[in-house]
Design a protein that fits this description.
By secondary structure, the chain is α/β, with parallel strands linked by helices. The protein contains 19 helices and 13 strands. It folds into three domains: 212 residues, HUPs (Rossmann fold), CATH 3.40.50; 84 residues, Tyrosyl-Transfer RNA Synthetase, CATH 1.10.240; 71 residues, RNA-binding S4 domain (Structural Genomics Hypothetical 15.5 Kd Protein In mrcA-pckA Intergenic Region, Chain A), CATH 3.10.290.10. The longest helix has 16 residues.
């Protein structure tokens, strides 16, 4: 990208952010004319990144396009602690095997948004795993217990007499030390990471470094429109999912949530959104048409324009023309038993990745086989070629 005037670059970088500490410091750093080190961390708590991650990854790509050095940090060490952000109870630490499995496809997934040739991947076990007992104690001495329990989630748990593991108190220090190790100039994160990002600034000053700028981006609500997008809640759209599945999930969101997705994922202007809302209210524009355009544009941005066009054509054939021959065609393995537990069938289809996700769909009446609703979690299904399985509002599979 052609180098912009510093003021214009700052203005563009601030678009879509919630908080920047501070714009003046960011301008000062950029004015030096040297590429900045831009840090974004993610703990491998699940194998899939999703559109919620895409919000902050897109901001990182913007820095990348302006010539700055981006570092995608995989928290393979901090995953052993578990980020307590937003949690009402202690998270179980991940095993080495789970961490390795979950990180295996991260680079391919972030490369859907970041330029892989200009992206540095680091693992925080490189330095956190090498801290000596003396260095670790020195790190812990940089902060106080009073400061750590200022976190809203910790304060909430204390008010409710809920336990806090001692190791959880270490998490902000570990994430903050990552910024020291990388000598980060800017750290990005969702608004739920504000405390951890500020800890990075705090620790850098204690280690005689210039404090990083922190930039937070809004949290994206999941498909339910209530909780933030999360794989553990089953309300996510994974960046590794097929484009047609992503399109179908986008079409399943509420009309109200559609405006939020336009704003956060497509940066549609408030003026344009307001204009469309007026047209929908007056009846001159049907929300289905706007939602199809939204789904197309999001898939085009994070998958590809060709895949977006194909996904839209498939959706129109399936759900508007009722042509089930256009459903996702699935061949089960040759040795598959003639009768399957419904959960195993959904997993073989790729419709769910966990039994808990399958249970939620079944209990919600969101699974249909040949138009018959299945709600029994223990149901056994005798499958046959040509069987149609509908999962949610806008995913249909046909067995070959």
């Amino acid at each position: 990208m052609e180098q912009l005037h510093i003021d214009q670059q700052i203005e563009n970088l601030l678009v879509g952010t919630v908080q920047t500490v501070t714009p003046e410091e960011l301008k000062k750093k950029i004015a030096r004319g040297k590429p900045l080190i831009i840090k974004l961390g993610a703990d491998p708590t699940a194998p899939d990144l999703h559109l919620g991650h895409a919000v902050v990854l897109s901001k990182m790509r913007q820095f990348q396009d302006y010539g700055h050095q981006v570092v995608f940090l995989i928290g393979d060490f901090t995953a052993r602690i578990g980020d307590p952000t937003g949690k009402s109870k202690t998270r179980p630490p991940l095993s080495d095997e789970e961490i390795a499995h979950n990180t295996a496809t991260y680079f391919a997934q972030v490369s859907k948004i970041l330029d892989p040739k200009k992206t540095t991947i680091r693992f925080n076990s490189e330095w956190l795993g090498e801290l000596s007992p003396k260095e670790f104690i020195s790190l812990c001495a940089k902060s106080t217990l009073a400061r750590l329990i200022e976190r809203e989630d910790f304060a909430h748990r204390m008010r409710n007499h809920e336990p806090i593991g001692f190791h959880e108190l270490l998490y902000p220090l570990m994430q903050g030390y990552d910024s020291v190790a990388l000598q980060a100039d800017v750290e990005l994160g969702g608004t739920d990471q504000t405390f951890n990002l500020l800890m990075g600034r705090f620790l850098q000053e204690h280690y005689k470094q210039e404090p990083q700028i922190i930039m937070t981006t809004p949290l994206l609500e999941g498909l339910d429109g209530v909780q933030k997008m999360s794989k553990s809640l089953g309300n996510y759209i994974g960046l590794a999912e097929p484009a047609d599945q992503a399109y179908g999930k986008l079409m399943s969101i509420s009309d109200k949530l559609m405006w939020r997705y336009m704003e956060i994922l497509l940066h549609t202007s408030p003026h344009t959104i307001s204009m469309w809302q007026e047209r929908v209210a007056s009846g001159s524009t049907h929300p289905m048409e706007l939602k199809k355009q939204m789904a197309h544009d999001i898939v085009a941005r994070f998958w590809s324009p060709d895949q977006a066009q194909q996904a839209q054509q498939q959706f129109e054939a399936l759900f508007q023309a009722k042509d089930y021959s256009q459903a996702t065609q699935i061949s089960l393995p040759e040795n598959t038993a003639a009768q399957l537990w419904i959960v195993d069938l959904l997993k073989l289809l790729g419709a769910v990745t966990s039994s808990s996700e399958a249970r939620r769909l079944l209990e919600a009446g969101a699974v249909k086989i040949n138009d018959e609703t299945v709600t029994d979690f223990s149901a056994k299904i005798t499958w046959v070629s040509g069987m149609n399985i509908k999962v949610g509002k806008h995913r249909i599979y046909r067995l070959k």
